[in-house]
Amino acid sequence: MKDQDNTDIADLSMLDLFRIELENYTKLLETGLVEIEQNQTSEKVEPLMRAAHSIKGAARIVGLDLVVTLAHAMEDILSAAQHDKMNLTSDHIDILLQGNDIFLHLTTVDIPEIPDWLEKESEAINSLSQSIRGILIQDIAAPQISSQAPKTPDKKDEALKAKPLEKEEDSFVRVVSESLNRLMGFAGECLVQARSTKPFSVSLLKMKDWHLELGSALENIFQFTENTSIPKEVREKFGESLKQLDQIRDLLITQIIDFELFSRNLEHLADQLYGEVVAIRMRPFSDGLPGFPRMVRDLAKNMGKKVNFKVFGETTKIDRDILEKLEAPLTHLLRNAIDHGLETPEERLAAQKPVEGTLILEARHSSGMLHVRITDDGKGIDIEKLRQKVVERGHISKEMAANLAEGELLDFLFLPGFSTAAQVTEVSGRGVGLDVVMSMAQEVGGSVRVDTKPGKGASFYLQLPLTLSVLRTLLVDIGGEPYAIPLSRIDHILKSSPDRLKILEDKQFYTFENEHIGIVDAHQVLQIPVSADKGSGLYIVVVSDRLNRYGLVVDNFVGERELVVVPLDTRLGRIPNVSAGAILEDGSPVLILDVDDLVRSIDNLLSYGRLHKVGDRKEITETSRRRILVVDDSLTVREVERRLLENSGYEVTVAVDGMDGWNTLQLKKFDLVISDVDMPRMNGIELIKKIKGDPNLKDLPVIIVSYKDREEDRIRGLEAGANYYLTKSSFQDKSLNNAVRDMIGEP
Q1: What is the CATH number of domain 622-744?
Q2: What residue ranges do the domains of the chain occupy?
Q3: pTM score
Q4: Closest Cα partner for 75 from 36, 106, 101, 47?
Q5: Is 427's pLDDT higher than 60?
Q6: Is 640 helix (H, G, I), strand (E, B) or coil?
Q7: 3-state class percentages of the chain: helix first, strand second, coil last, to nearest 5
Q8: Which stretches within 282-359 are classed as H helix?
Q9: How far is CA 594 from CA 202, 293, 488, 597, 607, in A?
Q10: In terms of DSSP bridges, do strands 357-366 and 369-376 run parallel, antiparallel, or are they unpaired?
C-alpha cells in the first residue's frame, strides 16, 4: 500500500479511511484501558465505549464482519462498565487489550490483504469475541445481556456511522514530510531575504546624503556665476536643473520612507510565515506516548510489581522529528526504571514504602530548551556497586575509581555495552539502553544527566532543542568561507598565541584547565586550501564526542547566528563533515558542520599519521590553478560542487543557468565547464551546443552532472558534445574529482 502520508485523502479508498480511523481509536483504547485499570469511572470509560462503537460502525460500512463482531463485544462490556453494571478487573483489561491488539495489527496489514488476513485469523477472532461476551454472561444477568443484543442497522444508523469518516476528512490534511521540510526551507529563506533588505535601506540613505552634497555644491556654483557673463539661457537652464534636483531629493526621501515601511512589513510578514510553519512541525508530547502506559502495565505485571505511571506535560509542543527520535530512549529509560529501580511489593513493604511504586514521565519547556524527566521512587543506583563494576570492566584502575565523584561515576552508565545487571534477561543486562539514550541526545545537540538518592529513587534528565529547524551556531572563517558549528556541540572557544602550543609525541596540544587538548588545523580536516597564514593569533574551537576531545584551529570567529536549517538534497548523498546548510542574512550560503563526523575525521588523520602541524600551510598561487566554471540553477548543488573542487585545489566560478554560464565564458578563460541539464533560460544541452559551435571554445571540455541517469539521457548529453556524463550521486564518492583530473589534470 502507498504510505498514507504521501496520499491525498480524496484519493483514498474506504478501506484506507477505515484504517486511518482505526489508528486513532486503537491509540485511545490502549491508553484508556490501562488508565481505567487504576481508576475506573464512568467518565473515563465512556470515550472507550464510543471508540469501540465507532470501530464497529466503520467496519460495518466496509464489510468487515469479524471486526464488527469483536468491536460490538468490546462495546457491550465497556457499556456495562460505564453504567456501573460491572467492575473491570485486571483480567478483563487483559482480554480487552487483546481485542485492541487485533485492531492494532490491522493497521499494519496492507489494504488489499486485510480480508484475507481476517479470514485466516477468523477462528482466533471469533474465540476472543466469545470470551469477551463470556465475561458479560458471568457478571451480568441474562436479561441485561439480551437487552444489549445487536440490532439490525437501519439506514439512519448507517448514515450516523459514516459521519465520523466525513468529519475526519474535513478536520485534517495529511502532508508529505518531505514537502513540509521544503516548506520550512522556503519560509526560512523568505525570512532571510526579507531581512536582507536592510542594506538597500542603508544604500538609499547614502544616496540621499550624496544628493544633498551634490545639490549644495551646485547651488554654490550657481551663486558664484551670478556676477559672471554667462548667457541668460544657460543660467535659466541651470536654475531649472536645481529645481529638478530638489524634486528628485523630495521623491528620494519619500521613497526611502515607503521602502522602510515596506521592508518592516515584509519582515514582519515573513517572520509570521516562518512562525506558522514552525508551529506546523510541532506536535504535543502526548502524540509520542500511546504505547507507554500499556508497556509499563504489561512489564510491571510480568515482573510482579505494582506501578503507578504518571505523565505530566502531555500538551507540551515538540518538534515532530525530535518526538520520533524520543521513542526508543524513553522506552529504554522506562523499562530500566521498572526492572532496575522499582522494587517488588514485598521489598517496598520491608523498606516502609507504599506497595505501589511511582514512575513519572514529564516534559516541559525551560530556557528555550525541551526538558524531559523520568523519575522513579525505587531503590536508586548503588554508587559503590557501580564503582566496582567500572573497575571490573577495566575502564579505570581501582585507585582512580576510589577518587571519582558520584557524578563522574554515573557518566559510565552511558558507555556502550555498560550494564550493572547481574544477569542478562529479556528486559536488561545487555548494556545497550542508556547508550541509545546518550546517542540520541548528542545526535540532536542535547545532553543527558542522572541523579540518584539511595533508597529514594533515580531521575534521568534529557535536555534537548525545541526544534531541529532552527539552530544557534558559531560562525567561523575557514579559508575565507563561513562555516557554522552548533553551539550546543562546542565545549569551549579559545584565543591564544602559537607559542602556547606544546608538542608531545610529535602531536600538538593545548593545555586548558589542566587538560591536554589535541590541536588540529581545520583546513586539513576539511581539505580546504589556504593562500597564507593569517595573523599570529590562534582561534580554537574545542569540540568532542563521548570519547575524544580536540581543538579545531580556524582563521577567525565571526560571531553567533541563529540559522534556519536547510537539509541538503538527498541526491547529493552523504557529504563528509557536513550535516546541513543554511542561508545567511546577506543571502550567502553556509554549511553547518557535523561535529561527530569532524571528530571521526580527526581520529582517522591521527590513526594514519597524516596530521600536519598547525602553521605548516603551503602557499597556493592563484596563477597556477586550473579554472573551472560550474553551471547549475540549484544553489545547493552549485555550492557543493564548488566546495568539492576548491577543496581539491581548483579555482571555481559559478553561474546560475545556461545563459549566465555562456555570458561568463565570454569574459573569462576556463579549463573546464561542469553543467547541469535542466535549467531556465538556457538548458545544459543548449549551452554545450553553443560551446562546441564556437571556434574559440570548441575544444573546451564539458562534464554534465545531472540527476537523470537513464541511458537515453546520457546519449543525448554526449551527442551534444559533452566529454563526461555523471549523476549527482557521484558527490558521495570520488567520481567527480576523478573525472575532472582525467580531463584537465591536477589543480
Answers
A1: 3.40.50.2300
A2: 4-171, 179-283, 307-465, 470-607, 622-744
A3: 0.55
A4: 47
A5: no
A6: helix
A7: 55, 20, 25
A8: 292-302, 320-336, 345-350
A9: 36, 36, 12, 5, 20
A10: antiparallel
